Amino acid sequence: MDSTKYSLKDFAYIQDADIMKRASIFQSYMEDVKEKHHYQYRRVSLNGSGPTMEVIDTYTGKPREMIYMASNDYLNLTRHPRVLEAGYKALMKYGAGAGSVPLLGGTLDIHRQLEKDVASFKGCEDAIIYTSGFGSNCNTLLALLGKQDIAILDQYVHASIVDGCQKTNVRYFRHNNMDALKKILEKSQNEYVTKLVVVDGVYSMDGDIAPLDEIVELAHKYGAYVMVDEAHATGVIGEHGRGTPEHFHLEGKVDIVAGTFSKAFGAVGGFIASNAELVEYLRFYSRGYMFSTAMTPQAAGSLCEAMKVIVEEPQLREKLWENIRYFRKNLLSLGFNLGHSETAIFPIIIGDDWKVKEIGRRLDEMGIYVNPVFYPAVSRNLSRIRISLMAGHTKEHLDKVLNAMEYLGKEYGIIGNGSIQEEIAAGAE
Q: pLDDT of 73-125, one tens digit each?
């Protein structure tokens, strides 16, 4: 099978093929992907997240060091001494697990402390914590919205939000387009019991920021509530790293603030922060909370400390933004298309699936770990190399990646032979 003629979407459902036959057909597709060295998945790390990572090479089986440009560990808190120590103390005090679901016997005082800390951090009355960010979004929406309600979603929201809206009516508006949102709100004003607008604070594939101030104003004008997913915003934007509501001076004015603990917080899990009544409702009606064993004590201990580090060590966020500005300036000067990216996520848009796969392969060979992203994850004309930065990346790391991207960009005809700066200089002569 020639894998370049197909995409993952082609194997999601095959008519007249049962699940075992479907898996067998998919396996032949994946074998060709691996043969072409386009398999950039499940690369095994030997030492965890960091600016560099020791990885077992997918094809040779030997370990090698790579510059890690695919992590959501924006502030490198997964290895921060204070975060590690707090997690270790919680592990020693409470043990490896909570022992039960949180609604029954699994709530520890450290869980309740984390809930209070999250609520305060996000400017809300209370919070509920989950064992995954995907689960917090999906299970919250499943619990809140039914057939008489409507979810109004930005077209680029995370998959966890889409999956959480399976029991309700859904309308999508064009990405960050307020005119499109307004039209849906106007049409929905008197048709549904609950109207909930759901957006990402920072979009995971594009790195741009939702205009949350405009969204809140519009939604509330038409009697709708707003939920914002803070997964890629927390720790990165806002004066103190508190995320999108702080960035727009809206703390306490957004109805539901969602997020994950697996990005800048450096651990795992998810949360919903809101008013106390809604949070208590979720504790009894969110099935992912009710029927999943509570978060491990070590994660809870680390997370409580991570929140303090974000506020008390602003130099981490300042270093991250120094890297963001430097990397963006140089990528743009080379002529790469970064879309509307504003944060630590860099979508280098190429618009050709084969070139994305090939550049991903070449970067992997050069010791640079990135995520190639192509159809159906994004539309074919927006296929890209996705890079994300961390505070711990050095200028030397960034320069190596920039040099590699310039070399490959020219080889594959994505950018010109000369840099933008050279073209400007030549035109001035």
A: 999 999 999 999 999 999 999 999 999 999 999 999 999 999 999 999 999 99
The verdict on pTM exceeding 0.85 is yes
320-347 burial: b if 16+ Cβ within 10 Å, else e: bbebbebbbebbeebbbbbbebbbbbbb
- CA-to-CA distance for 64 and 62, rounded, in angstroms? 7
Q: Specify whether 204 is catalytic.
A: yes
263 noted as active-site residue: yes
Q: Out of 3, 71, 204, 383, which one is annotated catalytic? A: 204
Q: What local confidence, expressed as pLDDT, does residue 14 receive?
A: 87
* Whether 169 contacts 150, CB under 8 Å: yes
Q: Lay out the sheet containing 384-388: strands in order across.
A: 345-349, 384-388, 371-373
Cβ(291)–Cβ(106) below 8 Å: no
Q: What is the CATH number of domain 80-312?
A: 3.40.640.10
Based on the residue annotation, tell me whether 232 is a catalytic residue of this protein.
Answer: yes
Q: Where are the domains of the chain?
A: 37-68+315-428, 80-312
Topology annotation, domain 37-68+315-428 = Aspartate Aminotransferase, domain 1 (3.90.1150)
